[in-house]
Write a structure and sequence with these properties.
The protein has one domain. It has twelve helices and two strands, in the order H-E-E-H-H-H-H-H-H-H-H-H-H-H. The two termini are 23 Å apart. By secondary structure, it is mainly alpha-helical. Strands 1-2 form a two-stranded antiparallel sheet. The protein is globular and about 45 Å long.
Length: 296
């Protein structure tokens, strides 16, 4: 624990300061910039800036630059490519084909940066799983407070296991995402003043993939742990995708058919968010129990 705080306190405080400061700049000086204008599929009524992810990612990137860890070049390249195409998509529409191609390349670069070699048959499974995580995080970013809460709880859960298993660097990285997610939630809690946008949601999805794979390879936890931790997102997104695909609908387009969206329309955003927070917390507790029992 001393090692964690000794090397990571400054980066964590820096991440919080940058995320907080840049979010306020984006809200004060660029209020009409990259607006998410509501339509018939939206869960909000007024235009909201979708630049919150820019501040979140900026805080994490700058903090990582002064942290004790050295980010492998392929890993950095993967995040840079994903962030670049996502920022463009926040400003103007990018076709699904182009986005999907970049997502594949980004995850492939993350796999190339893993510290240990894996069996060949892992690659297609992890490649598709990683791309799905990026997209499902984007799909699930459709209600105030939801994606930020999943990031805060999910990375806190993985980070705690990393602390318990002596993986201080991974724990520190998780702490950066938790702090920046909490800063973002201050402005994204219902009724939200700012949204994550594609830059934020896709980056969080890829970060979840990278931390999960590195934690697995370093023995902090098994792959079942992140699957359980992020179950509130992938269960909803996967089931909704299958239902829409089987119905012959264009599943990649925006809609209001996720469980959380239908619940919000029925009982309201606040109540739905509290139910989701309970689901997320329960999933994390279950993941820690499985790890403690040696089952994950």
């Amino acid at each position: 624990m001393t090692e964690l705080w000794g090397g990571w306190l400054t980066p964590i405080l820096l991440a919080a300061a940058i995320s907080y400061g840049l979010t306020n700049v984006l809200l004060s000086n660029l209020r009409e910039f990259a607006l998410d204008v509501p339509n018939h599929r939206s869960m909000h009524d007024m235009p909201v800036p979708r630049t919150g992810g820019w501040a979140l990612v900026a805080g994490c990137v700058v903090a990582l630059a002064v942290s004790p860890v050295s980010v492998p070049s392929p890993l950095f390249a993967g995040f840079a490519l994903l962030l670049g195409i996502s920022v463009i998509d926040d400003l103007r529409h990018v076709s699904a084909r182009v986005r999907f191609s970049v997502h594949l390349l980004a995850v492939a670069l993350v796999l190339a940066a893993l510290p240990h070699a894996i069996a060949w048959w892992w690659y297609p499974l992890l490649l598709l799983g990683g791309v799905w995580m990026i997209n499902l995080y984007n799909f699930m970013d459709g209600m105030d407070g939801l994606a930020g809460s999943m990031a805060a709880i999910g990375f806190a859960s993985l980070g705690l296991l990393c602390v318990l298993r002596g993986q201080s660097d991974l724990a520190g990285i998780c702490a950066l995402f938790v702090v920046c997610a909490l800063i973002f939630l201050r402005y994204n809690w219902p009724s939200a003043r700012i949204f994550l946008g594609d830059a934020g949601s896709t980056s969080l999805g890829l970060a979840a993939v990278a931390v999960s794979l590195y934690g697995w390879q370093r023995g902090a936890f098994g792959l079942l742990v992140p699957l359980v931790v992020f179950a509130p997102f992938w269960l909803d997104a996967t089931w909704t995708l299958l239902r829409r695909a089987l119905a012959g609908k264009r599943w990649w387009e925006a809609h209001r058919e996720h469980f959380y969206q239908r619940s919000a329309l029925r009982i309201g955003v606040q109540k739905t968010l509290y139910w989701q927070l309970g689901f997320m917390s329960s999933a994390s507790i279950l993941a820690h129990a499985l790890a403690a029992l040696g089952w994950a």
